[in-house]
Write a structure and sequence with these properties.
192 residues, alpha/beta, four-stranded mixed beta sheet, three-stranded mixed beta sheet, 7 helices, 7 strands
Length: 192
């Protein structure tokens, strides 16, 4: 998941959901309990409410938009409103929350790669990555437009067979998805 589940959010202590282990130390030690007031402050400006948190979200400054979101969240995160875990997996397509819908639905199965997305080599020179795929094409990406990710799920890529996929979030042009973190440095060769 991209972020923690919001099910049963009201009344939960910030940074304590056992199924999510990527909370920042600042959020875990904040002592906050999520309620109307704290969530309104968080949605207004997370960096101000919890200095040092790792949230990239800048906040919603418009009172009506924030009030609408809070009303929606309060209703949608009630215990009776939360879908089952299997229903969530089907809706997300493995991406987590809104990300699945924003990125076009279910993640592709990366076990059998087409030549155009099967990464053979990655070179790095100054500020540019060059990714060569099994179809013989080499694509150049500015270093800030290429992300390296891992997918250890049953649908993730095989060992030493990373996949090049388009990406559309935060200026990224593409992502190379590896089967394990240790493969990343093994694949990237510094070469001009």
């Amino acid at each position: 998941m991209t972020g923690p589940s919001l099910a049963d959010l009201w009344g939960r202590r910030a940074g304590t959901l056992p199924s999510f282990d990527r909370f920042s130390d600042a959020l875990k030690s904040s002592g906050l309990t999520w309620d109307d007031r704290t969530l309104d402050q968080w949605l207004t400006d997370p960096k101000h409410l919890v200095p040092g948190n790792e949230m990239t979200f800048e906040g919603i400054k418009e009172d009506p938009a924030r009030a609408d979101l809070l009303a929606f969240l309060k209703e949608a995160t009630k215990p009776s409103a939360a879908p089952s875990q299997s229903a969530q997996q089907g809706q997300r397509g493995g991406m987590g929350g809104m990300m699945g819908g924003m990125m076009g639905g279910a993640d592709p199965n990366l076990k059998a790669l087409e030549p155009g997305i099967h990464v053979k080599t990655i070179s790095y020179c100054r500020d540019t990555y060059r990714v060569t795929t099994a179809d013989g094409k080499t694509r150049a990406f500015w270093e800030r437009n290429l992300r390296f990710r891992t997918d250890t799920s049953k649908d993730g890529p095989g060992k030493d067979a990373p996949a090049l996929l388009g990406a559309g979030m935060m200026g990224d042009r593409a992502a190379v998805i590896f089967s394990a973190p240790e493969e990343i440095m093994k694949f990237v060769e510094r070469r001009c």
